[in-house]
Amino acid sequence: MDGFVAKPYTLAALASALSPWLAAGAGAPEAPQPTAPLPAPQASIDPSAIALLMSLDEAGSAGLLREVVNGFLASAVSALADIDVALSQQRLNEAARVAHGLKSPAGNVGARTLARQLGEIERCANGADPRSARRWLELARREHARVQHELTTLLKETA
């Protein structure tokens, strides 16, 4: 087989990529459809990311969504605090590393603005500009508060 499916991918996209190589007559596997209704769009959360998480849940429930969101919520507060301490102590490489580590999980839960802000913290810290990194951190903290509220509401709606 020679093919490519970019991440993040849906089961439908994977099935489509595999279908030419499946045994004749076997057909492509059906991608499960989520059974839980999709939540209403939120200001700080990209609803397409939530829809993707729902579509990737093989059980057709919100279990994967809850797992990813809870993981993000559990790590984000301490990661932002770690960035603050690292910047205060002029450990810019560490601040960049922590910001980079939180950027993808933020994107995975649809917190696109927060992910961009974390990318700016990383860029500024790597560029030896702690003042700018600190300004981005303050913006990220405010955005994180909105994201946290919206994700907590989303978890309640999908319970």
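[next item in queue]
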Amino acid sequence: MKILLTGGGSGGHFYPIIAIAEEINELVKENRLLKPEIYYMSTDPYNEGLLYQNNITFKKITAGKIRRYFSIKNFFDVFKMFWGSLKALWAVFRIYPDVVFGKGGYASFPAVFAAWILRIPVIIHESDMAPGKVNAFAGKFAVRIATSYPESADYFPKEKTAYTGNPIRKEVMEPLSIGAKEFLKLEEDIPTILILGGSQGSHKINDLIIDSLTDLVKNYQIIHQTGKKNITIMKETADVVLLNNLHKDRYKPFDYLDLLAMRMSAGAADLIISRAGSTIFEIASWGKPSIIIPITKSNGDHQKKNAYSYARSGAAMVIEERNLTSNILISEINRIINNKEEREKMSEAAKRFARKDASRLIAKEILSIGLEHEK
């Protein structure tokens, strides 16, 4: 059997694909099936080590991104999309997979389009509350559609759509509490706030934290994922802001949190502040209360829709960027941290929202469709 996985070149698309590939390999062992050939088609490999660990062959393609706003790049990306689709058609024809799984994003379009032309079964997964352009297109011919949010089913044909939740790697799901405070050099009895700005970091959140830092370290210790490009300026600015401050060591900036550091940080955190991308599902799996700050100008306003969908579960509260001030942030942090009953309610709501079997459900369907097509 041959399986082709495809998705946009961001962590929000790549890591769920890896989670599904892990489950495919696990199910193959459990059911004593012949080992499938698994391919990943995108604009870049993102993490070659994880592809290698999961026996996935990378196939590079070209893809164009059509923006919803005017940009001269749209003109050139139309040609990239056309050329990428032709190349993908030939590449997919040569592989001729039994099933194609699309995670969405502009980089998935060439492979999904090629599968449509070649009449290869397509399964898609939508991470956001409202579908992006590629999944909206693919949803018209996909044989199965999985969604991360229950409301997303309204955008697709109901008879072939299932609410599965978002695939998360098993290693990421379980926070590590034992040894976390020693590992991160945290004080024992001080509440801990974990701030996640995504792999690139968030300038808006970073600036806000700097403005709030003097007040925050009075009562809290902060683990802050700043993004690799921002770490130097954040450290230098924090050193100036906290000069001679007795609690300056309570601010812990990191450019990037690797798997162990992320699990330790999640285990130590009493509250998490995050954007409204796929990190929401990791926070839910950890069972942690959170403050979600959606990006104002995300494509199709999907981050705001994601944030409010998650907040309706009772697991989080939302602060929109237009209302984002130091006073409001600190007020909300104090309200949640100082109310144990509220924190426990949010934590339980997060656990109810989490669908820890998402990867396995999708992997089973991929294998089922693949085996059927192989016959």
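[queue empty]
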